[in-house]
Amino acid sequence: MANQTDPLASLVHGTNPQNLIENVVKQRIYEQMYWKEECFALTPESLLEKAVEIRCVGGTHGGQRKATKFLCLVLKLLQLQPDKEIIYEFITNEDFKYVRVLGAFYLRLVGSPKEIYEYLEPLYHDFRKIRKLCVDGTYSVVHIDEAVQEMLTETFMYDTSLPRLPYRHTLVSVGRLKPRASALQDEFEAVRKKLEEKKAKMEEEQRRKREENLELEKMEAAERAAQVYRNGGVPSGKAGRQEDRGRRDDFGENKRPRSGRNTSPEGRGTHERETKSRRTGGSTSERTKEGDGGGQSKEDLAIQEANALRAKLGLKPLRM
């Protein structure tokens, strides 16, 4: 009777719950002293006390493929088939990590796809370490979230074939599950809001700078227009000076001889008198003083010569 399923237990996936464990593995469990001595006549309440005492998870190990205590308790849960509320308490328990993994693995075997995803996905946030007994008898360290990921994605775990589990997106598409909400969603939203605020601030700063540049350009244009008005229509600065110089050149006001001499008739006469004075060795007034004192002075003769020259050029004569 110790190896029989509870008569009140219902079928799971259309078969006896114990058949979810491989027959060879199940026979190895029946041969274990732990199964015969510790798992005899257990109830769901007393099974919890045994689950608290386990210190590793795993399937079979060693040369004779002995079953672990963890696997023995899984088979006992399949025999007793406790209420789902008890299994949910196993999973939500945070004090005993091996009890949590035991309840999760049992629910993975007998639960519906919807409740499997609803109760196992929150365990992704449990990063506590657990020991796993490998086939060769050695121990390895894994995390609870890694074990849960293996339950949801693999088809064989702890020497046990896992029932087929539909993909999550398939259940979401038919409306049996809601889209998964990440635990970091709030942090993502906070980071996104900060980035949006920073972007809006940068855009506002760029817009303000563009407006300031436009205002400066308008002020400079107004100042240039006022300067042109004050200069009588001539722009200030280098461009204004070049424009003014070109304007004077066009009207002949800025043209000068290359030699720098005055080319007017009066200037030519004065230049000739200065040249004669330099050749004779003195100024006109000095030669007048040194003259013989009679007749016309040399200055009068120079004026007469200049008047004769001016008459030829059609200019008014100089006064004596």
Instruction: Please compute the radius of gyration using only Cα atoms.
Output: 58 Å
Distance between the termini: 164 Å
Major beta sheet summary: 3 strands, mixed
Series of secondary-structure elements, N-terminal to C-terminal: HHHEEEHHHHEEHEEHHHHHH
What proportion strand? 5-15%
Q: Provide the residue-averaged pLDDT.
A: 80
Q: Oligomeric form of this entry?
A: single chain
How much helicity do the residues have?
Answer: 55-70%
Tell me how many strands there are. Answer: 7
Overall tally of structural domains: 3
- The strands making up the biggest β-sheet line up spatially as 1-4-5
Count of helical stretches: 14
Structural class: mainly alpha
Shape: rod-shaped
Low-confidence stretches: 257-261, 282-294
GO biological process, one term: mRNA splicing, via spliceosome
Keywords: mRNA processing, mRNA splicing, Nucleus, Spliceosome
Biased composition (Basic and acidic residues): 199-223, 240-256, 268-277, 286-301
Region (Disordered): 199-303
Structure characterization notes:
By secondary structure, this protein is mainly alpha-helical. The chain folds into three domains: 164 residues, no CATH class; 64 residues; 49 residues, no CATH class. It has 14 helices and seven strands. The protein has a three-stranded mixed beta sheet. A hairpin with a 5-residue loop joins strand 4 and strand 5. It is rod-shaped and about 170 Å long. The relative contact order is 0.06. About 6% of the residues have low confidence.
